[in-house]
From TrEMBL:
UniProt KW Coiled coil keyword: no
Pfam families referenced in this protein's UniProt entry, alphabetically: TetR_N
Gene source species: Paenibacillus whitsoniae
GO MF terms held by the record: DNA binding
UniProt xrefs under PANTHER family: HTH-TYPE TRANSCRIPTIONAL REPRESSOR NEMR, TRANSCRIPTIONAL REGULATORY PROTEIN
Keywords attached to this entry: DNA-binding, Transcription, Transcription regulation
Protein name: TetR/AcrR family transcriptional regulator
Length: 192
């Protein structure tokens, strides 16, 4: 049990460090010092950094799958989806997926494939939520859900990047604009 707990601690710390300084900047030495263990202990659980990156992605995938399988309304799922992606991020943090995306070409092929998998799942999960939102009249039925999902994710992650540079939390402004411009209730047609 302690072995699995240590493995989970390593993954969680890696996620935290990815949010603050990015995947490429993380070393096993950083992890070992912060956990109070030897580098050999980290290597015991994750022989290569690629293995650790894959474990982090698997953790994110499980989170997305839980969101996807939730029976909550589209409105609640959308708020939870966005809140989860930003709740642990201050104005100096980066999305872990974005951290990996920025270094995509320098990642080992196996990690690139895992990253593509999680990116596709993230987009599909949000697309499915938005499609359900059409049925619940959360968004207009004419909206293109896949394009809107890409717009929302790009905007949120872009707000995080700009916030990191400027030292301000731009996320609330972005969400306010989405609520104002895109996520409207269906209005009755004129003459209907």
């Amino acid at each position: 049990m302690e072995k699995e707990n240590r493995k989970a601690q390593i993954v969680e710390l890696t996620l935290q460090l990815m949010r603050s300084k990015g995947y490429v900047a993380i070393s096993y030495d950083d992890l070992a010092k912060q956990l109070g263990v030897t580098k050999a202990s980290i290597h015991y659980h994750f022989e290569k950094k690629e293995d650790l990156g894959a474990a982090v992605i698997e953790r994110i995938i499980r989170s997305l799958q839980r969101t996807s399988q939730s029976t909550e309304s589209a409105d609640v799922k959308l708020k939870e989806f966005i809140a989860y992606r930003t709740s642990r991020l201050g104005c100096h943090a980066i999305c872990p997926i974005s951290s990996l995306q920025a270094d995509f070409v320098s990642l080992p092929e196996g990690l690139q494939m895992k990253l593509q998998e999680v990116c596709q799942l993230e987009l599909q999960t949000l697309t499915d939520i938005l499609e359900a939102g059409k049925l619940e009249q959360l968004i207009l039925p004419s909206e293109n859900a896949p394009a809107l999902a890409a717009l929302i994710l790009s905007s949120i992650k872009g707000a995080m990047q700009y916030g990191r540079v400027f030292g301000i939390d731009m996320y609330p402004q972005v969400i306010q604009q989405f609520n104002r411009l895109l996520l409207k209730r269906i209005e009755p047609e004129v003459g209907a």
